[in-house]
Design goal:
- The chain is α/β, with parallel strands linked by helices.
- It is 27% helix and 18% strand.
- It is built from twelve helices and 19 strands.
- Strands 1, 2, 4, 5, 6, 7, 8, 9, 10, 11 and 12 form an eleven-stranded mixed sheet that branches. A four-stranded antiparallel sheet has the order 13-14-15-18, covered by helices on one side.
- β6 and β7 form a beta hairpin.
- α2 (75-83) crosses α8 (271-292) and α7 (218-238) packs parallel to α8 (271-292).
- It is globular, with a radius of gyration of 24 Å.
Length: 513
């Protein structure tokens, strides 16, 4: 991208002049040389970078080649990692759909904004008009903005993406399991579950504010990844000379799984592996489009997942190895996600780091990069560009990270270096070592209660197998102080603490508080 006032001028483009004309043309020569030097000196603050976030749905920590994938391959993601950086201690704020996406797009813990869990088709709340999304922040900086994929922050008109900063939208407002046409539901679920889910309204596919499909079909399900990708590639081409924010929020690999014929039956891992290989193909198409349009060196691409794998679905779910548990829990398997970032010349290639980061940090970091002011209301994320760009000695500016779940339950707190994690007493879902379900039908979870605080040394025990609270009372005390900070601000339903820092979600007019 060029400066709007100065066309790039190479030294070999400076006109050759005859000796007798040298003095007469000297002002032009000097101007050309100055222009060339100005262009070479431009920085990310003067040439605004494109931002691309690719967010998958329920992809496990081990479901990328560089993170230990088995039974399928991810060559495009692996190449992206070779050209950029792997972040092995990257977390979402909550281990479930709507809450996770809310935190990503606002830089706030989602419970601060009144968004909990996964919003259903009959939910009467959504993201508030009083909040600022990343799309709105970038739109104020002159960016074109688009979302292709899953929104899940409210499906009433006032909550739609166009009302919250996106120029273009194609996709779903909900997860694909909120669908009365769910193929696995029809074939395999027990009658009582079928009766409940058959009451779901139609699951439409939207094109901007209009309905593209009144009710999604099985064939549509299989085309979602391709459709999102084709639109992303077109958006890149259309905005190649203009700064843009592209948010590709894949519906896969959330159940029910859908994959196109070009990938069906291709992997040893079965349908789940096929789906991941198509997601990887999508990443490759997006990266190729950036390069083909000459803008890959001025584009920051971020790949991650919204939460860990849905383990109860067994062979239709992913893997969090070597982490404990998965989606729906605040054990590492629920919140620690595969993350790869690429920005040639800005993020050093072949970087592999264990520094801890969270999705809430992307909002303020991107704001700093593009020169945008932060919203006046409080956000929880902090600028972590020195860590991402690998500045020597860079440290995480947070004192701790807070992990909430359900309706405002504070369940865990970690030190910001990612070494220590204090699990607080709470009830969580688990398979208790049993296998998950098969072919789209989940196995039932058991529920266990953690009766007392437990401390884990994640540097040496990433699988959270051994409670070391007794050996490190000083660390427990330090993290208990961070727990008190969280409860004093956002409250805690588990200890009946109100949260003075909580804000209201958006509500439909007739919705009670």
């Amino acid at each position: 991208m060029m400066s709007p006032r100065i066309r790039e001028c190479r030294i070999d483009e400076i006109p050759r002049v005859r000796k007798g004309h040298m003095i007469r043309n000297l002002p032009f020569l000097l101007l050309a040389i100055v222009a060339a030097s100005v262009v070479q000196a431009e920085t990310p603050s003067s040439i605004k970078p494109n931002i691309v976030i690719i967010l998958t749905d329920d992809q496990g920590y081990a479901d990328v080649g560089k993170f230990g994938a088995e039974g399928f391959s991810t060559p495009n993601l692996d190449r992206m990692a070779d050209e950029g950086a792997i972040f092995r201690n990257f977390h979402v704020a909550q281990p479930v759909c709507s809450a996770s996406r809310c935190a990503l797009l606002t830089g706030c813990y989602s419970n601060r904004l009144g968004i909990h869990g996964a919003l259903g088709p009959k939910s009467r709340v959504g993201i508030s008009d009083d909040e600022t999304t990343l799309a709105q922040l970038l739109k104020q900086q002159g960016y074109a903005t688009a979302l292709f994929g899953k929104w899940h922050l409210g499906n009433a008109p006032q909550f739609m993406p166009a009302r919250h900063g996106f120029d273009q939208f194609f996709g779903l407002t909900l997860s694909t399991d909120y669908w009365p046409g769910h193929p696995d539901l029809i074939k395999n679920f027990p009658p009582e579950i079928v009766a409940i889910k058959r009451e779901y309204p139609n699951l439409p596919i939207y094109e901007n504010d209009h309905i593209f499909r009144k009710e999604m079909s099985i064939d549509d399900l299989n085309h979602l990844t391709t459709w999102y990708t084709d639109r992303a590639v077109k958006f890149i081409r259309q905005n190649r000379s203009h700064p843009f924010f592209l948010y590709v929020a894949q519906s896969m690999p959330h159940v029910p799984l859908g994959v196109s014929n070009k990938f069906r039956g291709k992997t040893k891992r079965g349908l789940y592996g096929d789906v991941i290989e198509e997601v990887d193909w999508s990443v490759g198409q997006i990266l190729a489009a950036l390069k083909r349009n000459g803008i890959d060196k001025n584009t920051w691409v971020i790949f991650t997942s919204d939460n860990g794998p849905w383990l109860s679905y067994g062979n239709h779910g992913g893997s969090a190895k070597p982490l404990r548990e998965g989606k729906g829990t605040n054990w590492e398997g629920g919140t620690r996600e595969p993350c790869i970032m690429r920005w040639p010349g800005k993020i050093p290639a072949r970087t592999d780091t264990w520094d801890m980061l969270m999705t809430i940090d992307l909002f303020p970091t991107i704001a700093k990069i593009v020169g945008a002011d932060l919203p006046k209301h409080k956000i929880d994320g902090m600028d972590v560009w020195p860590i991402i760009s690998r500045v020597p000695g860079a440290k995480n500016p947070h004192e701790s990270y807070w992990f909430y779940y359900e309706v405002n339950q504070l369940q865990a707190v970690t030190t910001s270096d990612g070494k220590w994690k204090l699990q607080l007493p709470h009830t969580y879902q688990t398979l208790d070592g049993r296998p998950g379900g098969r072919d789209g039908v989940p196995a039932p979870y058991s529920f266990r209660k953690l009766e007392k605080e437990e401390l884990y040394d994640l540097e040496h025990d990433i699988g959270e197998t051994t409670d070391v609270a007794g050996q490190h009372p000083d660390i427990v005390k330090l993290l208990e102080a961070e727990v008190e900070k969280a409860r004093s601000d956002l409250g805690d339903a588990l200890t009946n603490r109100p949260g003075p820092g909580l804000r209201e979600p958006g509500r439909l007019a007739s919705s009670p508080k």
